[in-house]
Amino acid sequence: MSAFDLPRRLAAEALGTAMLVGTVVGSGIMADRLSDDAAISLIGNTIPTGAILVVLITMLGPVSGAHFNPAVTLVFWLRREVSAAGAAAYVVAQVLGGLGGTVVAHLMFELAPLQASLTVRTGGGQWLAEGIATFGLVAAILAGIRFRAAAVPWLVGLYITAAYWFTASTSFANPAVAIARSVTDTFSGIRPVDLPAFIACEIAGALIATALMGWLLRPAVRQALAE
Amino acid sequence: MSAFDLPRRLAAEALGTAMLVGTVVGSGIMADRLSDDAAISLIGNTIPTGAILVVLITMLGPVSGAHFNPAVTLVFWLRREVSAAGAAAYVVAQVLGGLGGTVVAHLMFELAPLQASLTVRTGGGQWLAEGIATFGLVAAILAGIRFRAAAVPWLVGLYITAAYWFTASTSFANPAVAIARSVTDTFSGIRPVDLPAFIACEIAGALIATALMGWLLRPAVRQALAE
Amino acid sequence: MSAFDLPRRLAAEALGTAMLVGTVVGSGIMADRLSDDAAISLIGNTIPTGAILVVLITMLGPVSGAHFNPAVTLVFWLRREVSAAGAAAYVVAQVLGGLGGTVVAHLMFELAPLQASLTVRTGGGQWLAEGIATFGLVAAILAGIRFRAAAVPWLVGLYITAAYWFTASTSFANPAVAIARSVTDTFSGIRPVDLPAFIACEIAGALIATALMGWLLRPAVRQALAE
Amino acid sequence: MSAFDLPRRLAAEALGTAMLVGTVVGSGIMADRLSDDAAISLIGNTIPTGAILVVLITMLGPVSGAHFNPAVTLVFWLRREVSAAGAAAYVVAQVLGGLGGTVVAHLMFELAPLQASLTVRTGGGQWLAEGIATFGLVAAILAGIRFRAAAVPWLVGLYITAAYWFTASTSFANPAVAIARSVTDTFSGIRPVDLPAFIACEIAGALIATALMGWLLRPAVRQALAE
Description:
Chain A is an all-alpha fold. In chain A, 73% of the residues lie in helices and 0% in strands.
């Protein structure tokens, strides 16, 4: 149990998701403006995202667990580490925080606060990519918590750094971030109409990872006791 | 209390700020000379800055606290962790060190020791960006000290790595560094006339972070005792 | 001895090798599509590969040892830390996992599941490079285990990050990954006909490292007792 | 005192310096061949160098101290942590290892084993840069050993990552590496005639750092006892 009360935990989830989305959207705008080479822009989007994840999870993990992601909150609810009401409140805080992050990024770059994204992100390859991206994220978190909890901020930051590149979708892997990215018509945007399939695949990937890691991380000894 | 006397602590603040500014200005010159792509230049400015922050804070933190930043010293003064006289001396050492860093960078690259910058950095988006940048920096430092002091050098290095990209101002977030960057007419410069607004916004961001984190990081138990 | 039974250990080897190859092949496709500058593409291939190695070895090391590489499994068999049967099963899991990684990367990027690579990688310089690359990898692993086991994920990730650039072959250094890269006709591919020489040189490098580090890492005291 | 005998320590110094130079020269060749943008090439030279330093110092530090640098060995000799004869043997091993690293890099890239470099690196700015670069390197090492020995591999790797960019000379900061770079006519080369001034400035920087840090790192308490 966290020593922090629910208002602080929700504030931590909202603040962390806002700073995460602010980084994704803001660095995307900056990188896109500065270069004509899309790979350089993606480097300029990747490095800040990976870096801020290490910072945010270290800062806010002891307060709220630093989910910043409804798919992660779902996993912890399934593992009975958070109540249904707590999980629902977390998700609301994450979505609102994420939207706030987009608004702040837009204001810094002197754009309209909210825009409908026109970036098409759809099709089987993208959907598979979102499933794989979220599968790997949840697997890394669960194994990290099990074996080396202090390393989790690094595992998540480095995992997302890699996943921006190895997935065809640049790895949203987070329904709250996906929603927040649907209201920016910049480098990191996604059409609102493309959201539902992304979110469904993210949840599917999270569920598969929960099941697989539940089996994989149970050592022989504990297994014997369980039989 | 540091085991180091005031002259050593001031020397550490001056040396650290000089090496920080030398890195920001020097790598900016190098990156700008080598590439026509502004995003590549910013990558060549970001990676060295993030890296040297980890080094400098690890090296000099045990001597002086490794503030290198008047906004950070202000926060520690507000928290009664440094005296008013000590804080004032720190700020003088930081500003002088920072100016020294610019001079040394210029001499290495065979430029005039001091130049008036002509780079315009002004407007509401930039000011908001400086406030956000310094807010996040102070929040990361306060949470890091509270939960995982050994990680603070990494948190600051990674935070600034991200903030170079997610803010519209490339995140000065430091009045001493801003002053030192006003006397270089190179990649990282800022017009002297644009300084006051930047510094005001940095201080505002630091104050807001101090207030918010003062509430957020107080766990329920300590809270109960305080009532 | 791992607390995990053989099926879990084999699953960890297959999953880890699949995610490693998926990252190498997937990020290669992404980086190649986004840029016309081959160095930028290699940066976009290097950063994800180094990052995912830190993640995968931290995640799965406690389960299977996180070899993900037949040359590494060979070294541990020579050191009698794994049985012949166990080593053979590991290698099968690694090769199958690696092939699975290529297939998944192709499906994400909407390519045919398997392709014969046409990328020529042959000649004395490349073969020397593969020997050196694997020599360094095994040396880093053996010294890391000896002096600072917790750092091994970082040592491997950083070593491969460097070796992508300092070797003429971009450092395959792994027979299972090499096989998996022979069935993709994308940035990271290698002609099937070029495989045998690569694999032979990788094994030679691993054997030389095992012998040299066996001598180098034996301190004077243990040496005296042994005489 | 190291638990390792002199032959092993010299082998570690030679092997480590060879792998360091092999990385500097090899990644320079690779990065230069792949890109027309000099900043991208420098990124492709910087990341591998920083990464391999973390690996090599972690691997070989417990054996030999992982100097890989005559300027560093000089500092430890001045501090009476190595004998004059030991220091001389270290320097010979470093220089021979460094030359071996250049030869191996050339063979991997199918170049003549040794070449006279034609790259001009001279003038006051460059000399100041070498002095500053080595000053900072030695300061980081001495403070790191004093406050957080386990972090020294990271401090050196990150410091050099920054110094490649903030110095006008791209920070050789190492006489053995400078000598090894005088026999390659590739990206990282230096004309043999430019060596003596570089080496003199590196030694001067190391001596100034030793003196300054000797004062700065002595806390008030120890100071009081010394008076």
